[in-house]
Every structure is written in C-alpha cells, then in structure tokens.
Amino acid sequence: MRRRRLTGAAVRFHSLRVADSDEPIGVPTACHRVASRPGWSAQWQALVAAVCLLSIAAVVAPTDAQPPPKVPKIGFFSGATADGVANLVEAFRQGMRDLGYVEGKTFVLEARYADGKPEKIPELARELVGLKVDVIVPTTDAPIAALKRETRTIPIVMANSTDPVGTGFVASLAHPGGNVTGLTNLSVDLSGKRLEILREVLPGLARVAFLWNPEARGTVLDFNESEKAASSLHLELQSIEVSSAADLDRAFSAVTSQHAQAMIVLPGNPLAFSKRAEIARFAQRNRIPSMYGIKEYVDAGGLMSYGPSLPAMYRRAATYVDKILKGAKPTDLPVERPTKFELALNLKTASALGLKVPPSLLQRADQLIQ
To answer: How far apart are the C-alpha atoms of 255 and 238, rounded to whole Å?
Structure first.
C-alpha cells in the first residue's frame, strides 16, 4: 500500500486552524479535522490525530509549568542544650505558626545547640553559615558574637541580647546597621531592681553571691551595673564566675564558704540556664534565697525572678524573621526593648526556706507559683 507524505502545507499544527480556513477552532476538533482527509485509512487518521495532539501539548506544556517555590531555611542557634531551651524553640515555632507559616512546608528550621560548651560555639556558627540559611536566630550573646564574626550578609535576629549596643552587635537600637537586629532584654537596667527586691525579702541582707559568665560580653556590663547598685545599697557583692560545666561545683563551694546570704544568677549564661534545676536545688538545700533574671529558674524551684518574659521575646523574634523573609533589611528594623517585666515568686520554695514574703511584694507579683 502506498502511503501519502504529510507536509506542513497539509497540516498546520501550530495554528490550531484547518488548512485553507481562517476559522479558529478548539484543539481536539482541529486535530480531528486535520486527520479526516479523504482516502486516509482509519489507522492513518488515528496516527495523525495523535501526532497533532502531542505536538500541541509539547508547545503548550512548558508555558504552564511553574518552578516549585523556594522553602526558606531558618537557623536557630543556642549555647544551651536542646532540652534546656525546648520551651523557647517552641515559642519561636508558635510565633511562626501565628504568622501563617507551616514548618516543613513554608520554612525549614535548622537548629544547633552547643550543650553548654562554649568551645563548640564557633564551630556551630561556621556550620550554620555554611548551610546558607536565609536568616539565623541566636539565643544569647555568645552565639550572636560568633555569628557576627562569621557573616556580614546573612541576617541575624537576636532573640535575647543583654546590651547589643554596648557589646557592639549594633550601632544603635534605632538604627542597627549591618546584618544584626532583634530584641534586647535590658538586663543591665534591671540589675539594681533585683537587688532591691532581694532586700525587701531579706531586710538584713549584707552579702550576695553573684553567679555570672565573664566570657559573655553582655553580662560584663550587667555585672558592672550590679556592683554600682550594690554599693549604693551597702551590699557586698561576691563575684563567682561560671564559664563551663567544670566551674559549677567550684561555684557552689564558693557560695557556701563565703557565707553568702543570697544569690543572684544573671541571664545570658547558656550553661547556667541548662543547669537551672541543679542550681535551684543547691540554693534550696543550703537555704540560700535566690534571684534570677528570667522566670524559667523559678519554674525549676528558684525563689524569685524579675525580668522580661523569654517566651514572649522568642515569639516576637518570629515577626522579625517574617519581615526579613518578605524583603526587609535588618539595618531598617530597630532593636526592640521589652515593654513589660515580670516578677515571679515560688511560694513553695519560700516556705521551704522559712521566708515570709512581704504582702506588698505578693501584691506586685505577676506570677505566684504554689
């Protein structure tokens, strides 16, 4: 059987028109008419119709295809253990959910933890920068400082900085400059207030042990302010440095041997935060009233705390991440201060220590833990 040769003159696939006609028609109808030529067998007509449809599909399909949307990668960087900051990670995730994000679909969280080991922080900072994440949320001053050394381009959102201007993280709160912005807990401004509250509970207070980490630059400023406040209140401040896990037992021995009447633990120390339950047990066992910068210590059995709500700060950090993912530059986002400070009291611990909390302090407390 002799087969006829098909040419472009006989079949115009690209125009969706029947040859020798100016009338536009639908794709299936066009292919059917093209194939239905007199003298062609049924098999030959079916083949031509199939080729017609496939040719049209090959031209149209690429114009409809869309590349899959990019899923942003967010770094989360803590100097503490994963368990120690689990509630803060969840607060950040909740902040992202509140803004409409779905983890695994509209963002991926790359979390890194130094487990209370300062020597691991530089390595983890390099690792996160190497992942080319879109933005990084560090928890305290040491991770912030390490990240700032590693990158000047990846946006850094501070979830909890003691004094970002004093530490050099930003140029000013209103105009951060560079790639760093976020939130400050203003603990330097609160140092004197914490000592005053301790004096209310212990009117005869004279000696206060001060647990802090001199390697965290923000806490150096906090310690200096606390020394000034202690002098004005005629209190002796006993400096006890805790930079690593190996320092903790030595620090406990120093507190008892120096006969401290109370103890303050500064915020911004990832090691202390990870060991907060152990620190609270030590204070109870040795009947030492303790003051902390954040409520999580009181939840773990500490006597009282005064400072901003950490979970609220981490939820708020999500709003910075959202703005940056939508195109905002860190330099254009002012650093925020907390607008509310919480006084938390653990009445069970007070009872165990034989303390009678003044009624005026009970009335001022934002949270009373029974």
So the answer is: 8
How many angstroms separate the CA atoms of 95 and 322, rounded? 10
Q: Region 24-34: what's the mean pLDDT?
A: 52
Q: How confident is the model at residue 66 (pLDDT cuts 50, 70, 90)?
A: low
Burial 303-331 (b: 16+ CB within 10 A, else e): bbbbbbbbbbbbbbbbbbbbbbbeeeebb
- pLDDT tens for 97-111 read 999 999 999 999 999
Compute the Cα dihedral for 210, 214, 216, 218 and give only its sign.
Answer: positive
Tokens 């005064």, residue located: 306
Tell me, what's the pLDDT at 24?
A: 45
Given a contact cutoff of 8 angstroms between Cβ atoms, the answer to whether 87 and 141 are in contact is no
- Angle at 171 (CA atoms; ends 165, 130), nearest 5 degrees: 95
- With the CA atoms of 279, 232, 216 and 367 taken in that order, what torsion angle do they form, in degrees rounded to the nearest 10? 50
pTM over 0.90: no
Angle between helices 310-325 and 86-98 (to 10 degrees): 50
Element (H, E) at 312: helix 310-325
Task: State residue 104 phi and psi, 5-degree precision.
Answer: 90, -20
Rounded Cα distance between 213 and 168, Å, is 18
Residues whose CB falls within 8 Å of the CB of residue 325, separated by 6 or more in sequence, listed in order: 72, 107, 134, 135
Q: Which structural domains are found in the chain, ordered by start?
A: 13-64 (no CATH), 73-186+311-332 (3.40.50.2300), 187-307+340-369 (3.40.50.2300)
Task: Write out pLDDT tens, residues 333-344.
Answer: 999 998 889 999
Q: How confident is the model at residue 54 (pLDDT cuts 50, 70, 90)?
A: low
**Shortest CA distance to 266 belongs to which of 283, 241, 244?**
241
